[in-house]
Design a protein that fits this description.
The complex is a heterodimer of chains A (244) and B (487). By secondary structure, chain A is of the alpha/beta class. Helices cover 37% and strands 26% of the residues of chain A. Chain A contains 9 helices and 10 strands. In chain A, the strands form 2 sheets. A 6-stranded mixed beta sheet of chain A has the order 6-7-8-3-9-10, with helices on both faces. Chain A has a 4-stranded antiparallel beta sheet with strand order 2-1-4-5, covered by helices on one side. In chain B, strand 2 and strand 3 form a beta hairpin. In chain B, 58% of the residues lie in helices and 15% in strands. The relative contact order of chain B is 0.09. Chain B has 19 helices and 12 strands. Chain B is an alpha/beta fold and 487 residues long. In chain B, strands 1, 5, 6, 7, 8, 9, 10, 11 and 12 form a 9-stranded mixed beta sheet that branches. Classes of the chains: A alpha/beta (244), B alpha/beta (487). Chains A and B meet through helix 2, strand 6 and helix 3 of A and helix 16 and helix 17 of B.
Chain lengths: 244, 487
């Protein structure tokens, strides 16, 4: 579904060349649940943000279902309809109610009528257990609830790929589980997912593949089982030991 | 008062001699036949002849109408430059010229003058204890005059060492005289008497007039029948005190001064329905302010959206350059200058009303400030909001319209209210191009009554009430909008 070829991202800062992504090559198949882990500053988030064009790579190309989304003439808005994104800080729209947050995009883009969008939104809200919050504003919700709404906001577009940028990092520990539960439900329904995370429970229980990034490179590409059982890479095992 | 240059007189003389032969018919019978009397004047000399809106009015015009009535004729006014007034007469296009002209032997060679219909006297007002005893003491002193009037022109020419202070109203000059900011004031004698009594005789008039001159009507040379008719008509107007009434209408006010506050309020607001002028002025001020702010917000949203746009194509670059130029020019020049440029240059030939031009000028001015207010509002919105919008597949403009702008506008609402309040007061500048807004309405009343207290305080209180009401209303709106915020 996604094919990343020779991806570089660099910029100049005070006459120094900073290389954030240093030649990424990876293919992700439909239905895969990819966890991206690694120390901070390793380029995980930048890599993820390149996948839906929020970040422009310096060179290299990314193909989504055969379309090069780094090409100049590529209509990113059309691509993004099929790629959902969930942020660390939720980024709900504070001036809109929960229902308006969810239906804004599909109605503005004329994907569904307002009634249909609200019907789907209600279905999804029931699934995440927040259908009673439809007319609340984001400021009235807890962090875990906000993140579940953010996921619903992406799901209502019926995307083929979901990107998660540290979805549980900004949450209090007791709220992590309710968000992971929703993500695992999405995974069970066959969604292709790329998740940047520090949360090992997601890596262990949901991920089908783990990418370990360091200094802008993917230095390990494994299944979770192999990663945890017998890891030969020193840097990776050091990192994992610190986490567990 | 007005003197023609020698050159023009020579030119006129040549022209006149060539034209006289062709102009044989008697003007008086011509007027009676056609039922139309054509006059030449120069409508730049208030209160004798000046433009009030599109109409030419004044003492001379009213006298002309009386003469026209006596001949059962309609008046047709030909407004030309002062130098061309007698020229117009000798070309045969006009029956007579009336333009506050005084007798001069030079002119009398080319035209015939009527009897004097008005004596203009320039009075000298000084404080009671002043050491100025005659006009000879005036040079080197601080002299107050009404801008552009006879006294101004005379003093500027004759007292080279004096500091001439020019006022829009002679009443303001007298006020400064009382407050010791001036040594003398030179004004027409009729208002002078009024001003002295209003000052409770703190100032006095010198016995000597600065100068005195009689105004006359000019007819083409040899038109004795017409001249005789005019003279007899002027005599009957003088005998019946009709001329005094006309002069009173333009120069003086029949009201006698009062220090009683109630009487002042009555005189300044109730008398002649003056309160209506204040109310209309207030409405004009509000109209201009509201429309200007709406234009300002519209421009402000466009300009700020252009300035924060992340697109990098050619069109956006051009638009950004235009936006920067607009902001620089509008914020770098005074609003009065912008108003003048709009009124006298850009819209001068469009026939748009002064109020509409003011709305546009203040709107364009306000737009620059609103643009920066809104831009700061946009920059205050977390970039995650933009990214969330874009990653849902929304275009930049939809993201801007539906996500960023509503939040930005809500955040800058208090600053926008501030801009509105500024604008309410700033629109008083519209008086410069003759819009009768609230400030100018008060000014006009003050110039009619010579009493500053009531009109000025009424205007001030109305501004204050408007601002307080606006603030109250907007904080109510703000509270409503903040319901979904935890602040």
């Amino acid at each position: 579904m996604i094919s990343v070829k020779n991806l570089y991202k660099e910029f100049h800062q005070e006459n120094k060349l900073l290389r954030i992504l240093d030649g990424i090559n990876v293919d992700i198949q439909k239905g895969e649940k990819v966890a991206v882990i690694g120390p901070s500053g390793s380029g995980k988030s930048t890599f993820l943000r390149c996948l839906n064009g929020l970040e422009k790579p310096s060179s290299g190309s990314i193909f989504f279902k055969g379309t090069d989304i780094t090409a100049k003439n590529c209509n990113l808005d059309l691509i993004r309809k099929n790629i959902g994104m969930v942020f660390q800080h939720f980024n709900l729209f504070p001036h809109l109610t929960i229902m308006q947050n969810i239906t804004l995009a599909p109605v503005s883009l004329k994907i569904y009528s307002k009634e249909k969008a609200e019907y789907y939104a209600n279905e999804l809200l029931k699934k995440v257990g927040l259908d009673d919050k439809a007319n609340h504003y984001p400021s009235q919700l807890s962090g875990g609830q906000k993140q579940r709404i953010a996921i619903v906001r992406s799901l209502v577009m019926k995307p083929e790929l979901m990107l998660f940028d540290e979805p549980t990092s900004a949450l209090d520990p007791e709220m992590v589980n309710e968000v992971v539960a929703v993500m695992s439900d999405i995974a069970r329904h066959g969604m292709t997912m790329v998740v940047v995370t520090h949360d090992m429970s997601f890596v262990k229980n949901i991920a089908s593949r783990v990418l370990f990034m360091d200094n802008g490179e993917i230095i390990l590409d494994e299944t979770p089982e192999k990663l945890f059982k017998n890891c030969e890479n020193v840097r990776v095992s050091k990192f994992l030991n610190k986490l567990i | 008062m007005k003197h023609l240059s020698k050159k023009i007189l020579c030119a006129m003389f040549v022209l006149a001699t060539t034209l006289f032969t062709a102009n044989a018919e008697n003007k008086l019978s011509e007027i009676q036949k056609s039922g139309e009397i054509k006059i030449a004047t120069n409508a730049e000399f208030e209160p004798f002849e000046y433009k009030n809106g599109d109409k030419i009015v004044g003492i001379d015009i009213d006298i002309t109408k009386k003469i026209a009535e006596s001949l059962n004729a309609q008046t047709k006014i030909n407004d030309v430059s002062f130098d061309a007034v007698t020229l117009e007469l000798n070309s045969g296009n006009c029956d007579f010229a009336i333009a506050a002209m005084s007798y001069s032997s030079d002119k009398a060679q080319n035209v015939d003058f009527s009897d004097v219909y008005y004596y203009s006297k320039q009075a000298i007002i000084v404080p009671n204890n002043s050491n100025i005893k005659s006009s000879a003491d005036l040079d080197g002193k601080r002299i107050g005059v009404a801008m552009g009037f006879t006294g101004d022109i005379y003093c500027t020419e004759n007292f080279k060492n004096a500091a001439i202070e020019r006022y829009n109203k002679s009443s303001d000059a007298v006020l400064d005289l009382i407050n010791n900011r001036l040594d003398a004031v030179v004004v027409d004698d009729a208002p002078a008497k009024k001003l002295i009594s209003l000052s409770n005789n703190k100032v006095k008039m010198l016995d000597e007039y600065l100068f005195e001159e009689g105004y006359r009507i000019a007819v083409p040379k040899g038109e004795t029948e017409l001249l005789e008719h005019i003279n007899s008509e002027l005599k009957s107007l003088k005998d019946s005190k009709e001329i005094d009434k006309i002069v009173d209408k333009y120069i003086t006010d029949s009201y006698s001064p009062s220090i009683d506050l109630i009487a002042q309020i009555y005189n300044n607001l109730k008398e002649k329905d003056r309160y209506k002028m204040i109310i209309n002025g207030l409405l004009t001020t509000l109209e201009i302010t509201v429309v200007a702010l709406l234009i300002g917000i519209f421009i402000g949203i466009l300009i700020s959206a252009v300035k924060v746009s992340r697109k990098e194509n050619f069109v956006i670059k051009i638009l950004k350059a235009i936006a920067d130029l607009y902001l620089t020019i509008i914020r770098g020049t005074p609003v009065v200058v912008q108003l003048f440029v709009m009124y006298y240059l850009i819209f001068s030939s469009t026939g748009l009303s002064k109020v509409v031009v003011s709305m546009i000028a203040f709107g364009i001015n306000s737009g620059a400030y609103v643009a920066e207010i809104i831009r700061s509002g946009i920059l205050s919105i977390d970039v995650g909001q933009y990214e969330a919008g874009r990653s849902l597949g929304l275009s930049e403009s939809i993201t801007m319209r539906k996500i960023i702008m509503p939040q930005a506008l809500k955040n800058v609402l208090p600053t926008l209210v501030n801009e509105f309040i500024q604008l309410i007061k700033e629109t008083s500048v519209a008086g410069f191009i003759g819009v009768t807004d609230l400030s100018r309405a008060g000014d006009i009343i003050r110039s009619q009554t010579y009493e500053p207290l009531v009109p000025l305080s009424t205007v001030a209180i109305l501004y204050l009430i408007t601002v307080i009401a606006t603030t109250f209303f907007m904080s109510f709106i703000e509270r409503k909008l903040r319901v979904n915020d935890k602040r």
